[in-house]
User: What shape does this take?
Amino acid sequence: TNILLADEINRATPKTQSALLEAMQEHTVTIAGHTYKLPEPFFVLATQNPLEMEGTYPLPEAQLDRFFSKLIVKFPSLNELETILDRTTEATSPKAEPVLTGERVLAMSHLTRQIPIAEDVRRYGITLILATHPDNAAAPEITKRFVRYGSSPRGAQALILAAKILAILDGRYHVARDDLKAVALGVLRHRILLNFEGQAEGVQTDTVVEGILKAVTV
Assistant: This one.
């Protein structure tokens, strides 16, 4: 498969999570001592239900870091619920049709990487990443007070690539600081680990990222 949907990933056992991490990291799976290469492209989409805590297992930071971004899906609005019901309670179900080939996706990915980024814009992105670390000089007060660990270098890679994707979707062949700001929440919210005080006070990582965006002006 090219796209794997892992529903309620935090209900998977640590052994299953370890196997999924191998697939995400190495693009291989190992069964009975034999290792098999996964097809390209290979993407993992996962859902996580924050309301049901019983019977769940915490996701290791290494696995969370493998996810390019994390989106928060809010409860559907009235119109969205109507659409859901229309599509799931009628006699006929909508049929999904492929709109892209794997080769096309790989070509688009390669094209995105060719989008140039100015040195000052890239440096701004790097500063945002450094500002997630409480022991770094770029860290604002909110980071120093509530964060235990900041983003990894993989988070910096995701930040730049996500900004390039946004730029090309907007029809631009250059990356702006606003692109970095626009993608920061989705890219960084799962890559920041709060300390005890942050957890005790119910601080959200989104609040930390928003505080960093306001504080970093370079």
Q: What stands out?
A: The chain has two domains: 1-67, 98-218. Strands lie at 3-6, 28-31, 34-37, 43-46, 147-149, 193-194.
